[in-house]
Amino acid sequence: MSQYRGKVVYLDFWASWCGPCLESFPFMNRLHSQLQDKGLVVLAVNLDENLEDGAQFLARHRVDFAVAVDSGQACAKQLQLKAMPSSYLIDRNGRIRARHLGFRAGEAEQFSKQVEQLLDEPTAP
After folding, report:
1. How is 52-112 classified by DSSP, letter by letter?
2. Residue 62 — very low, low, confident or very high, per pLDDT cuts 50/70/90?
3. What pairing do the DSSP bridges indicate for beta strands 86-90 and 8-14?
4. pTM (2 decimals)?
5. Which conformational region is residue 30 in: left (phi greater than 0), alpha (psi within -120 to 50 degrees), or beta?
6. Cis bond leading into 85, ω under 30°?
7. How far is CA 53 from CA 62, 70, 95, 104, in A?
């Protein structure tokens, strides 16, 4: 995560079998497209035990943002994930400022506002 210092990060943990995860991908594509020039990084971390399942999911669904794999689920365990997807908003100083469990399309506007608020904050010296 140190490579993203100075950026706002929307960190999302997902799996190919997760229905709400599928629903969140168009939202993350929009966020990335609209706000990357303002300093947003969208990073989706796949938690599938079988890497091929995640690869097939990505082959069927367009992704414009960065995707990583946590095959040993070390990050997921460290953050003690309780739902799929789980999303974290991390400010420019590397602090987790918000956490969202699950995804409901009706909450997308709230997520966007939280991201924009973080983008408007300055980086601490």
Report:
1. HHHHHHHHHS---SEEEE-TT-HHHHHTT--SSSEEEEE-TTS-EEEEEES--GGGHHHHH
2. confident
3. antiparallel
4. 0.91
5. alpha
6. yes
7. 15, 13, 31, 23
